Amino acid sequence: MSDTFDHSGMPEDERLAAEYALGVLAGAERAEAAQRVARETSFAALVAQWEARLAPWAGEIDEVAPPPQVWDRIASALPAPAPSRPGLWQSLTLWRGLTFATAALATACIAALIYVGSALRQQPLVASIDGGGHRHFVATVDPTRDAIAVMPAAFSADATRVPELWLIPPDGKPRPVGLLSADRAITLTLPPALAALAKDNAVLAVSLEPPGGSPTGAPTGPVIASGKLTNL
Amino acid sequence: MDLDANRSLIAAALARIPGGDRAALQTVYRLTSAKLFGVCLRILGERAEAEDVLQEVFVTVWRKAADFDAARASPMTWLIAITRNRAIDRLRAARNSRRMEPIDAASDIADAAPIADSALENTQENARLHGCLGELAEREQTALRAAFFDGNTYEELAARMSVPLGTMKSWIRRAMIKLKACLER
């Protein structure tokens, strides 16, 4: 086999980046390439380009849910929240800051008490998301976990577009929640700002969007179904 | 499975991690761990090892989330690259890859083709990659697949396909040149 292709068609650095991204290097060669990724932004960019070229292949790999203890191990392996550094105690800025912080903390405590008080009374919310005489999805909001679970009912998939869920609070402005699936229940975590809006009488709506979801942050395709959140 | 289905959600959660938001890391975990665990299992073959590597991956994500640039990369591309690198490092530390059974040039092509009728959602990128892989010689496709999915080194690929090391390097390098040219067309 001729060796000529090894030295033509792709510059040396790019060839090495491709080999590193594919994973065929071993030993010192792989270690050296890894160090260059960490040190040289231009080499790291070449590797990132090859990773992007190859990544769609991973779509072929089946999803396998890891056992729950893996998350527990990750959570316990994270560093503890950073302690304040010594030396700060001599800082005038710190003491000035603390004066403000104490007032802010008092306000936050009151807010937290109100929040906890209301959380204790929070019940799951449900919505039947209907359109055209069919029930397309059923959604359940768990306020204690700030999560929303959405189960497909009579929704049939569109070949080119994906269903995206929107939360519409009384101000009428749709907030993107996430993409849904036609064939399985999806659980989405609600960021705090959204969770605060997922209340009784907020509306959930589903629109059809290009793969990856609406590029604009607002529905771009037809809204095919909607339903009001109500307390169980 | 559309790898970028939750792209904006994952990117938004990654952006909150450098501020020390553990809930954001958990959101990324919920949205991506099944795919990433699948990648670990495919390369490592053993659940216990795959679980260890998945843990390393998310601790790495916690430390390096600030490096992720949503304007330049897809979050799944970034996460899959971290996962494959961690899994391959683990494989190399064990000195041998688990998948070392001999393969001949055409043997895996039957497995390579059925992307279109599998349960996978055929995204544009996926379709383009597969179209371009289809233009490669069978032996080149087989070698690239074994490298990507089994985490084999040049030496291991040469042994599995019973060709000299220099030949294997030529195949892979030539395949990469052709793949890049096709993807950029």
Architecture overview:
- The complex is a heterodimer of chains A (232) and B (185).
- Chain A is of the alpha+beta class.
- Chain A has helices at 12-22, 27-39, 41-54, 69-77, 92-120, 192-195; strands spanning 125-131, 134-142, 147-152, 162-168, 175-179, 186-189, 203-209, 223-228, 230-231.
- In chain A, β4 (162-168) and β5 (175-179) form a beta hairpin.
- The longest helix of chain A is centred in the middle third of the chain and has 29 residues, at 92-120.
- Chain A is extended.
- Chain B has 185 residues and is mainly alpha-helical.
- Chain B is 67% helix and 0% strand.
- Chain B has helices spanning 7-16, 22-44, 47-64, 75-93, 109-112, 124-134, 138-150, 154-160, 165-183.
- In chain B, α1 (7-16) packs across α2 (22-44) and α2 (22-44) packs antiparallel against α3.
- Chain B contains nine helices and no strands.
- At the A-B interface, α1, α2, α3, α4 and β5 of A face α1, α2, α3, α4 and α6 of B.
Question: What is the terminal separation of chain A in angstroms?
Answer: 72 Å
Q: Give helix % range of chain B.
A: 55-70%
- Shape of chain B from CA axes? globular
Percent helix range of chain A: 25-40%
Uncertain runs of chain B are 109-122
- Low-confidence runs of chain A: 1-6
- How far apart the termini of chain B lie comes to 25 Å
Put simply, the count of helices of chain A is 6
Radius of gyration of chain A: 26 Å
Shape of chain A: extended
Element order of chain A: H for helix, E for strand:
HHHHHEEEEEEHEEE
Short description:
Chain A is of the alpha+beta class. Helices cover 34% and strands 23% of the residues of chain A.
Give keywords.
heterodimer, A: 232 residues, five-stranded antiparallel beta sheet, four-stranded antiparallel beta sheet, 6 helices, 23% strand, B: 185 residues, mainly alpha, 9 helices, 67% helix
